[in-house]
């Protein structure tokens, strides 16, 4: 079965910290470790995926404490720096979806810089969803489409993902069985995998098992 886009909802970082009796900062650092993350991305790429997206910060995450929010932002910044140091070798293209007007300026500038530096690369496209929520995305899209006669096809052009194919696979780690508003418009025919592993423990081997199962399925798209 053709595989184009894999998306991950990386849940369970706080529970991992509690389980391992360590700090949330260490949990986040383990979650975005460059070597581990690259193995996961490369597994996706080798199976034919041209797009790999991950949810870094949701619109609902603003409800968390200021200390934890800043820890998340700094973790994302550190992850970007790690990938930035290897862009000439990796040739990954990076783009960001979601809002940028509310996140720290230092992070918004870093994201913009990485997008600019990697815009000509095409080995695989990494999509970072930050300050992203599906309902928020749809509301913003409706505002953008004001004055336009909208149908399902042209509505896509107003979404953050206008140049990104819908996800074939959506994986949520951590055991929760919901998408929590991740790409609601785009996920109509996505194959959904809920796994019990907490995200810092999720590996390329886990991804390969999911891809193998996906390839054995028959997608009918309503037919």
Key traits:
single chain; 223 residues; alpha/beta; Undecaprenyl pyrophosphate synthetase; 6-stranded parallel β-sheet; 6 strands; globular
Structure in words:
- This protein has 223 residues and is of the alpha/beta class.
- The protein has one domain: Decaprenyl diphosphate synthase-like (Undecaprenyl pyrophosphate synthetase, 3-Layer(aba) Sandwich), CATH 3.40.1180.10.
- It is 41% helix and 16% strand.
- It has 9 helices and 6 strands, in the order βαααβααβαβααββα.
- Strands 3-4-2-1-5-6 form a 6-stranded parallel β-sheet, sandwiched between helices.
- Helix 6 links the parallel strand 3 and strand 4.
- The longest helix has 19 residues.
- 35% of the residues are buried.
- The mean pLDDT is 94.
Distance between the termini: 16 Å
The percentage helix is 40-55%
Spatial arrangement of strands, main beta sheet: 3-4-2-1-5-6
Q: Compute the gyration radius: what is it?
A: 17 Å
Shape assignment: globular
| String of helices and strands | EHHHEHHEHEHHEEH
Instruction: Characterize the main sheet.
Output: 6 strands, parallel
CATH-derived topology: Undecaprenyl pyrophosphate synthetase
Helical run tally:
9
* CATH superfamily descriptor: Decaprenyl diphosphate synthase-like
Overall residue-averaged pLDDT value: 94
How many discrete domains?
1
Q: Strand tally, please?
A: 6
Given helix and strand content, the structural type is alpha/beta
